Amino acid sequence: MKIVVIYDSFFGNTKQIAQTIGNALNENNEVEVLDVSMVLHNQISDIDILIVGSPTRGFRPSENSINFLKSIAKTGLKGVKVAAFDTRLSLPKIKSKSIRFIVKTGGYAAKHIAKALQKKGGISVLLPEGFLVAGEEGPLVEGELERASNWAKSMIEKSL
Ligand SMILES: Cc1cc2nc3c(=O)[nH]c(=O)nc-3n(C[C@H](O)[C@H](O)[C@H](O)COP(=O)(O)O)c2cc1C
117: which of 10, 43, 82, 84 is 20 to 30 A away, CA to CA? Predict the structure, then answer.
């Protein structure tokens, strides 16, 4: 299968997750992992699977990620299997109770990405997933790379 993983990343955490997902899918598939600001539209045509990930910024995907999603043609993902992920703050690491509440109730980027991908014709095969960072700049919480790898592999199982 032809698979493209697209990510945005300010501090490198979402990039690490995207690369881990790419590595997990490499066997028997043709995989490209691309920075969202470098994506050319011909790179997402004729693909079987598209995975898009963004850091959560103000409860939403990053601006670059939103612009990329908007730029996909109306039915540009027709028949393509899609999945979305984000990185987000680990709630137990947030000391202030009120900020914890705001972050939790505000929601996260992955849900918005999944919705946008489906709107462009993508077939959602996995629930949107979030991977945890310990602070704004990271690092990723222990075990998250392994969880990302397993999440990606389960997508392949569901796409066969
Ligand atoms: C301006 C800004 C807004 C953020 N907003 C949220 C948020 O709403 N919810 C959340 O869980 N994390 C939030 N974070 C933490 C980011 O999710 C975290 O920086 C990101 O996962 C790191 O990924 P990256 O290294 O790929 O940029 C925010 C961080 C910044 C700098």
Answer: 10
